[in-house]
Amino acid sequence: IHFVLLISRQGKVRLTKWYSPYSQKERTKVIRELSGLILTRGPKLCNFVEWSGLKVVYKRYASLYFCMCINQDDNELEVLEIIHHFVEILDRYFGSVCELDLIFNFHKAYYILDELLIAGELQESSKKTVARLIAAQDSLVEAAKEQASSISNMIAQATK
Amino acid sequence: MALSGMRGLSVFISDIRNCQNKEQERLRVDKELGNIRTRFKNEKGLTPYEKKKYVWKMLYIYMLGYDVDFGHMEAVSLISAPKYPEKQVGYIVTSSLLNENHDFLRLAINTVRNDIIGRNETFQCLALTLVGNIGGREFAESLAPDVQKLLISSSCRPLVRKKAALCLLRLYRKNPDVVNVDGWSDRMAQLLDERDLGVLTSSMSLLVALVANNHEAYWSCLPKCVKALERLARNQDIPQEYTYYGIPSPWLQVKTMRALQYFPTIEDPNTRRSLFEVLQRILMGTDVVKNVNKNNASHAVLFEALALVMHLDAEKEMMSQCVALLGKFIAVREPNIRYLGLENMTRMLMVTDVQDIIKRHQAQIITSLKDPDISIRRRALDLLYGMCDVSNAKDIVEELLQYLSTADFAMREELSLKAAILAEKFAPDLSWYVDVILQLIDKAGDFVSDDIWFRVVQFVTNNEDLQPYAAVKAREYLDKPAIHETMVKVSAYILGEYSHLLARRPGCSPKEIFSIIHEKLPTVSTSTIPILLSTYAKILMHTQPSDPELQNQIWAIFRKYESCIDAEIQQRAVEYFALSSKGAALMDIMAEMPKFPERQSALIKKAEDTEADTAEQSALKLRAQQQTSNALVVTDQRPANGTPPVSELRLVKVPSMSNVDHSSADHGVTQENGTLTVVDPQPPEPSADLLSDLLGPLAIEGPPGSAVQSERNLVPGTEGVPNAEDALAIAPVGEQTNTVQPIGNIAERFQALGLKDSGVLYEDPYIQIGIKAEWRAHQGRLVLFLGNKNTSPLVSVQAVILPPSHLKMELSLVPDTIPPRAQVQCPLEVINLRPSRDVAVLDFSYQFGTHVNVKLRLPAVLNKFLQPVSVSAEEFFPQWRSLSGPPLKLQEVVRGVRPMSLAEMANLFNSFRLIVCPGLDPNANNLVASTTFYSESTRAMLCLIRIETDPADRTQLRMTVASGEPTLTFELKEFIKEQLVSIPTVSRGPAPPPPPPPPPTSAPAALSDPGAMLAGLLH
What we know:
- Chain A has one domain: 2-Layer Sandwich (Beta-Lactamase).
- Chain A is of the alpha+beta class.
- Chain A has helices at residues 24-38, 76-94, 99-104, 106-116, 127-158; strands at residues 3-8, 13-18, 48-51, 54-61, 64-71, 117-118, 121-122.
- By secondary structure, chain B is of the alpha+beta class.
- Chain B contains 42 helices and 16 strands.
- Chain B: Residues 751-859 form the Clathrin adaptor alpha/beta/gamma-adaptin appendage Ig-like subdomain domain.
- Chain B: This is AP-2 complex subunit alpha.
């Protein structure tokens, strides 16, 4: 997978992840081209779009388009189900995910994606495992926060 | 759900969402960026929390599409934070903001490395993820060993190891040297025994990348892949969490089968059997179900299984099963499956014996060409293109043409290119080909690249039978009310060349042709006007007897464009005007274009080029290289093991002489005729690219054949008997039985060999005849090199020499059969009996599918028996005086001489071993030369030549030739005359024929019409 894009129906970008090196300029261009290409496609067409020697596998969930770009001879359906797999994990994490969740917690989406894909390849196909790892990360952050606040409490108290 | 826990960030996002328009949003973003910038400036006051918040904001702004050109340092610096929350943000934002080439990343390498080798598991994970996502070459070099260690470490937990596997995969992609094959292959095999399916999935991806580059080292992994696949397919011991809609990790199944496709075959019968059992189960056991995701997942596995079956060359039965399945798929409603069915059917074309079954689905495929989904239409087009052959070309191409009028713009260019290629490759007759291309231009002129119309011009020029037909067609199209500019170009070009063939038809008089073309002139762009001007000039030339009215009309046009701002147009106008006022000269310069050398279609090359290459070599491509393909992909591969055996024949260089000749000819014209400018050998700017295709082979030095060969025959491992049709895709099918097109111009090759002693005499797709000669006095020794270019033998080879009476020639035995790719040398002894310009002919024939017979002139010509000799004034004048008058001394005024300066003429003489003796003649406009001629009857005989030129008119001169023998004097005089009137060009040959005719400066060459000359010499 060369990159992952989440675009809203209005063409707003909700998440981008680039596994192949694209410069800032190229990234903007790719997003512009693909929004034009994918958002205009009708509902009953196939989930694959050929684009500049590559292929984009996309799927629409409510107002969001999830797009993944692959090589011409990669297995399209496999990638289509990676998308679905990602969506299911998001869904489980946020509890029936909606676009708003991904807007305000876009960083969570990045964490989850990093547990799912590395180097553009699937690293984990078990939803349970991903969920467990994300939960562990969250608790680490929480613990750090508590620790910080308890320390600052202590300092605060000590300096009272 | 306020998981973010960062109020500032949430507020900012809400603000952005509340913006009414883009302008407001930009203002808000700018304000925020300003804020972040100031905060970052006095970093000291920032708490880790604030830093995190700002870095996230930056990423958010970046995602919205704004340039964020600062703060990267802050993001990178968070990586080295001691606490997890900051570190995590640093890693993730860095890997999203930067790409692998960013300078700041280098700063982080050490920190990243410390995290990888450190003992904090969570830090390891973060670091591996970053490197896996954006690590570049430098990371590869410094981190690969550490990552490898983590991957095989027994103390690491799966969550670290699976990341390490993919991280290593990335590093390997960046620099394959980081994985030491010898040490790693065993480890890789061990990794495949992994029980944790997360680690196994990642490891399998790594394996795919490794075997794609080098399967040899990883044979030991093959049985393990098959085992893993069996385990999955039978759902043995697969944890529930790894089944996806009831299917045991479809991704791992796909990956495993992908890895297997990189091994050329499976030798172990047991492994092969168990694999086929699994594949059979997948092929047969995959049903269509209601649930979309289950369906997709199971079909992802199924399509990969199909690809693997194709790769393994399964038994015919299984192949037919596959085709049957695909046939079912291309007819279903579900668009994804239909798309993939078409795509995989195209891949299936690689497998030899299924094409006929695929052809049965032609009607269904054509329906898909009209699908509402462009993705599906594209696949259908590709498949039709791939499955097209002689039997269905007419149907398919006509279908494509019909579709062209309604096709969307995005596809038209590809469509017309493909239609043009198919029409060319599989034309049952050439007039059909011309029809197709003209229709293409008519229907989709904007999408017809110049290559396409250049190609049709090439065909028409090279096939005399086709010329009247093409002219009629071109004339018909001109009657249409609004025609595309490309059509104007083609029609004008063809009618300029061949409209005289139609002269008796109604509406085809020169005048009428002229006026219908001229009607279009106001509508065309500057790039077309030069073509029209050439056409006018040609029409004028063909109008015999000349028509003063037409002439005045055309002259008026030329005069009008004499002051055109476009240099090309202006030049043509000036030149054509000047030339056409000269009368006779026009005839020579405007003569019909000679044939183009046969060459691979530029269109096919173009089609290949558009197939974008991808970084990792795909299994499909590898496969295409491993096997002979019947698909239409014409490859340009050279044999892997160096040059093909016949190559030595091609090493021969054209003498540099021809170059000198070329430039000097240009100068001559300049001096001679002030109105003509020296034409830059490069075609003018706007058309340079466009012309390069047509001009290419003529302009390059060296035997044209090497550029032209049908590469196909050189591809190693082609089937035993190369199919005559393949090699001659451009020739009409009907004629293939009795004609083989020579590669390159035979007459040109002969001319070239007149000046040098080695080179190619003849070449066609099957054979190359090279020649090497040595001359001593009246004797010569030629060696013929007969090179078989094929992978199968040439039989019934016969070579007979038809010597003229003055030459005694003896050819050694020529073998009846030339083995595949072999070269046979046949020496030929020559003795010159007496002076004569007659030429020996080699009657050569062979059998290769068809009987081929060619008659070739041998370069045992008069000047080969000359030896240069330089004489002094003391030797020259007595001799000159003693040979007084005819028949020993002959004088003639020669007219129609190719204009050249004295220096060039001297060069020309020297090249024929007539040595110019400077200073002998006091008149600077004269030239004196001497040489010795050898033959049995004359022995060595001194010959003296004097040329007197007229500086006022370089087209005429007076020539005096003297020798001790009347025949010699006469023959030598005639020989020199031939050289002065026609040019023995080599690389230039007859004027290069671009669609717009060549600049007049190089045109006199056209006089030497190769056909006429050959006829004259063969009498």
